[in-house]
Amino acid sequence: MSQSQETLSNLLQETRRFAPPADLAESANVKADAYEEAAADRLGFWARQAERLSWSKPWDQVLDWSNPPFAKWFVGGELNVAHNCVDRHVEAGNGDKVAYHWEGEPGDTRTLTYADLRREVSKAANALLELGVRKGDRVAIYLPMIPELPISMLACARIGATHSVVFGGFSADALRTRIDDAQAKIVITSDGGYRRGKPSALKATVDEAVDGAPSIEHVLVVRRTGEEVAAHERDVWWHDVVERQSEEHTPEPVDAEHPLYILYTSGTTGKPKGILHTTGGYLTQTAYTHHAVFDLKPETDVYWCSADIGWVTGHSYIVYGPLANGATSVLYEGTPDTPHKGRWWEIIAKYGVSLFYTAPTAIRTFMKWGDDIPAAHDLSSLRVIGSVGEPINPEAYVWYREHIGAGGAPVVDTWWQTETGSIMISPLPGVTEGKPGAAMRPLPGIVADVVDDRGEPVPNGGGGFLVVKEPWPSMLRTIWGDDEGYVKTYWSRFEGLYFAGDGAKKDEDGDLWLLGRVDDVMLVSGHNISTTEVESALVSHPKVAEAAVVGATDPVTGQAIVSFVIPRGSAGGDVEGEEFLKELRDHVAKTLGPIAKPRQIMIVPELPKTRSGKIMRRLLRDVAENRSIGDVSTLADGTVMDLISEKLPSAK
Ligand code: WT7
User: Fold this and answer.
1) Which of 318, 287, 290 shows the shortest CA–CA distance to 165?
2) How far, in Å, is the centroid of ligand 1 from the Cα of 210?
């Protein structure tokens, strides 16, 4: 074992393990035998999962992998996603069951049962047809978190149109690029939505984007805020066109490989890629993983995923997986701190949410705001709590379990990507003894591993690159219009293996720890050190709420570790002075070893993040290397870098 592996393994020796609660283990949807079942016959296993869905024509072949890496799942099968997510639940007598408890940011609410959803989706599908949208056409959707968003997606699926949802925080340029790339025929938007207590406009951005997007024939506008919007000839109001449609529409069965949606990956670098997902395999794996990882009991659970539908998490775990399973979900429009910092916990108490899914960035924000805020709400309904989007630091994991999960709800740390479509690596809440910070094992039916730079599996205790070794049902099928880019980006680094772009380690038990994007690994005096590990070490200090770490060029060590730290709200004392900075450096040295000791720590009020909550280390590297700060246009909050620059002269 090299020195860096030895020193860095300290963090992995986090010894606390959390066994599933006995009653959950007893009644779990998925038990340990699923791993053996899937290992014995992977394709047979996925065929059984596909039987959760209703097919209008059965498939002839589970997987066609004769032309890798271009996969076809459930070859010859036909089904309709909207029928599976909506109609069949109504037909089974569950029309009165709530599909969504929608909560607007200002406090207005709307309840949609499965019967309501069938009616609304049918009307929207008829409206799309009237507007000239046909099977195979692309529809751009640029909406806030209002019921018309999932309704629009399902209406597309119902008629076989392919949707491309663009997150409502993106600029006109970003929207236009995505509309152009997909050659979308119409865009569905709204006058605006509510954010931080105020109406925030959307339509003006669409007008600007569409002025340079000749493929668009109509803009379909939902009225949400009632604010004035400019009128164009191409505009049609939702309440004019959709409301007068027939409530009857027969969903059109499509081929299992029919394109369901395109979703552009934001990424922190490079041109956005249109990730293409298709129908049968995608719905099979989103439904199965939602059932397995969240242990959904559709009769009794209330499920809430706090993501925005504009990201893949929302596509798979607010819309498709939960609806395919007939779940009752919460859908929330706004921000966590409007009108107060306990809003999320108030929503959980109000609806009795039992299954909750959020991101580490949110968890760390709540840690920063203080323990007393969740403590003021009744969160006892929660029984499984999930995390997604980046590695969850052991400290944040334990806080989440203690303060949100009432000290007992299992945390499921779920690793996946826009490209994988569904969860790939995660504990099973009724089976796995969870370790804080570890995503643990590939789910049944998924074959993933950690390999070295020659593509050879590393032994337990080793680190390298995360790869997927066998095709999976919800895998991306290509990059829209760019088969070559698909092969090059994902399938060329290692022969026959899917390259995820993430670093990972296998601990002594063979459990997996995700270490962030491979571009985020630092090389300090010849040792590979991951930014995630140093960040976790910093966050494990009681006075630290959040930390970001970058490698800055250093004449002596090649790269040096530079950290940016936000102290906890409750920290007290001097959290600016040299003494505190020394305390933090020593704490990292003690946790990870002297090699990981940051050269420099800067105390900052905020961290630069993309709209999906990923830290933009590129900008922090600019600060660390004393360069002028690069393009900030994809920041969630454009003022953060000003705050940081203002702050730094005094922080050294
Ligand atoms: C990247 C994918 C998947 C939905 C949201 C993000 C990172 C995601 C984890 C996790 C460690 C994680 C990876 C991955 N990531 N989940 N549980 N532990 N890292 O989708 O925007 O496509 O990002 O997010 O780096 O490659 P995305």
Assistant:
1) 318
2) 31
Q: Is 418 in the pocket of ligand 1 (CB under 6 A)?
A: yes
| Binding-site residues for ATP | 389-391, 413-418, 502, 517
**Cβ–ligand 1 contact at 468 (below 6 Å):** no
Q: Is 514 in the pocket of ligand 1 (CB under 6 A)?
A: yes
The two three-digit tokens of residue 20, written as one number: 């599933």
Q: Rounded CA gap, 116 and 113, in Å?
A: 5
Distance between CA atoms of 563 and 539, rounded to whole angstroms? 11
Give backbone dihedrals phi and psi of 182, rounded to 5 degrees, phi first: -90, -10
How many whole angstroms from 409 Cα to the centroid of ligand 1?
Answer: 22
Q: Of the candidates 352, 427, 444, which has an alpha carbon nearest to the alpha carbon of residue 392?
A: 427
How far apart are the C-alpha atoms of 530 and 505, rounded to whole Å? 11
Residue in this structure with the two tokens 């606390």, named with its chain if needed:
16
Is the separation of the CB atoms in 373 and 403 below 8 Å?
A: no
pLDDT in tens, 577-610: 889 999 999 999 888 878 889 999 999 989 999 8
How many CA atoms are closer than 13 Å to the CA of 385, on its beta-carbon side? 27
Positive or negative, the CA dihedral 405, 407, 410, 411 is positive
ipTM surpassing 0.90: yes
Q: What is the pTM of this model?
A: 0.87
Backbone phi, psi, residue 69, to 5° = -90, 30
Asked whether the beta carbons of 553 and 559 are under 8 A apart, the reply is yes
**How far is the C-alpha of 492 from the C-alpha of 484, rounded, in Å?**
10
Peptide bond just before 69 cis, omega within 30 deg: yes
Which residue has the least CA distance to atom 8 on ligand 1?
389
Separation of 391 CA from ligand 1 center, angstroms?
8
Q: Which tokens sit at 91?
A: 């037909």
CA distances from 29 to 125, 323, 329, 606 (A): 34, 17, 19, 41
